[in-house]
Amino acid sequence: MIGKWKKIKTEEVYHCGKWYRVEKDKVLTPGGTEGVYYVIRKDLSSVVVIALDKKSNIYLTKQHRYSVNKFSVEFPAGYADKKETLLGSAKRELAEEMSLASNNWKKIGEYIEVLGMSSLRMSIFVAKNCHESEMLKKDPLDKNLHENLVMRYAELRKLIAEGKIFDSVTLCAFAFAEAQGVFDKLKK
């Protein structure tokens, strides 16, 4: 029978404002051995948006990711503000990153990113019938942060198969959408 890990004591070893903190937990393993486990705690949830328009186009963003020094193609995503609902955060992220809006939203799933070392919750939303936003917001970090990409399902699937899309948030959201038939009409 599989056992559970037990926390004995927690010590915060690093705190990065509202974004995350690193905790060092003294633990008892399922087998009864004492050990240490480091966990990245993120109190904020995050959202990812699969944006589709009436013509079966899929919207993604391209941006440079400093941590790996590479350009990455991704679904729009970001942290949920504690003052917003998850849906409100998804709508804001779509407007900020893509200058798009939608009145047809559905939450299709939730998962924990990097489960072995993090507590970050990601909620996946599909926004259908996307159109240009009247609010034309831009990412508050930098107006030159994102390049909007529009592609068809086959092109997106090919980029994933070739390893050209390597963002875990995008890959997981794509898998949820595939499993739930979100792209079924787009495959034709």
> Mean pLDDT across all residues, rounded?
91
Text of the CATH class of the largest domain:
Alpha Beta
The multimeric state of the shown protein is single chain
User: Rg to the nearest angstrom?
Assistant: 19 Å
Taken in chain order, the helices and strands follow as EEEEEEEHEEEEEHH
> Which band does the percent of strand residues land in?
35-45%
Q: Total domains, how many? A: 2
CATH architectural arrangement of the largest domain:
Alpha-Beta Complex
The parts where pLDDT drops under 50 for at least 5 residues are none
CATH superfamily of the largest domain: Nucleoside Triphosphate Pyrophosphohydrolase
Number of helices: 3
> What's the CATH topology name of the largest domain?
Nucleoside Triphosphate Pyrophosphohydrolase
Q: Can you give the helix content as a percent range? A: 10-25%
The major sheet is characterized as: 7 strands, mixed
**Overall outline:** elongated
Q: What's the end-to-end separation, in Å?
A: 47 Å
> What's the total number of strands?
12
